[in-house]
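Hi F.,

I've been meaning to write this up properly since the lab meeting, where we talked about keeping a consistent format for the predictions we share between groups. The idea is simple: the sequence comes first, exactly as it goes in, then the structure tokens exactly as they come out, then a line or two of notes. No screenshots and no reformatting. I'm using this chain as the first example so we have something concrete to point to.
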Amino acid sequence: MMQRARRRLTAPGMWHGLALMTAVIFAYGLDYLFNLVSGRLLDPAQFGILVALAGVGQVLVVASRVIQTVVTRFIARFQAQPDAESRIASFFRAMFRSAWVWGAAATVVMLLFSFPLASFLQIEDVKVVLALSATTLLMVVRPVVGGTLQGRQQFAALGLVQVVQASARLALGAALIMAGLGAFGAMVSLPLASLAALAFGLFALDKIVWRPAAAHHGVTIPDMFRYSAYTAVGLIGFALLINMDAILAKRFFSPVDAGNYSAAVTLGKIIQFLPVAVIMILFPKAAQRQASRRDPSGVLVPAMLVVTGLSGGLALLYAFFADWIVRVTVGAAYQVDGLLLGLVGLAMLLLSLVNVWLNYFLSTDRTGYVYLIGIGIVAQVMMMGLFHDQLWQLPAIMSANGFWLTLAGGVIFYRSRMQAAD
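Output, unedited:
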């Protein structure tokens, strides 16, 4: 047993995973610091513009994740085939070319919507919205590079891409704001940082993607569309599950109570961010094993254990040391007790496990779990609409929803194992 543990600790995959996890946590920390610095340097009106546009930008972020997930899946499956290098090169170049075309088209659409969006958000300086629109092209192109790195399991390089973007955004954003450009400078830093991350990602890519391809990738448009549709529904659905409570809290409660709940949600998101690196490693490894007819569950169990340990440990700290954590992080002005923060932590833990199941099933082509995500969204909306007398009820409903979705994932996994054994 000691030898097995020693082999696991010294395996390259373990160190690559730690490198990716460290990079992801560091990148998220830099993003959080960007928000703090922007809040300090901008006046409230300008900071309000930045926060509002950041919410709009989340739509682009989810779309970017869908693209990266789809690319990762196909690249990882190619790795299990004998002519892997040619297929990967062919697929990458086809997707890279298409991304520039579709990204340009999406950018034009965003530019056209910039003026009505500025009017809707009551933003007088439309060029701030135009700066967000300029990010659209890179949010379509960069995931192709990121998905290729992830599918090729170049995890250290993938983590550094995120660090480069977060670092560039923080440095450029602070510099442009201090130069007197205000919210426009903060928004311009995003496309500039994305461009820097894209350049680094292209540099980090394995050179095989640029070699002449002897074989075509063989991916058909219907196959690409089918998988992309399931992935989009699943990832967008999950984004709704974890963000719905903050939106409805603003609707159902007073501004003070909604502000207190926002503080709890901000801390809760840390629990949800921790497993991101684990999931980024799980997805290509499971997809590659599935394609090579090996048992993909070998990477699932360690991922579940790590996510449960990381997220569960932090959730327990939230429940028992809520007052101290709130006072140190967001400040004593927020009233968040142990019950509320503990339930938020539990909800994020269970939904993190749901995220593991979702990515595992998407990587192994068991897309039926996406339908359960849809049922979970409907159930969560209905329950929150009926029960919202007190703040703690919202995370309690999310916890119950996460619990049955986690159990459902286990049932689907167990049944698939039994069918494979037969």
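Notes:
Residues 4-11 have pLDDT under 50 and may be disordered.
Residues 222-421 form one domain.

If this format works for you, I'll send the rest the same way.

G.
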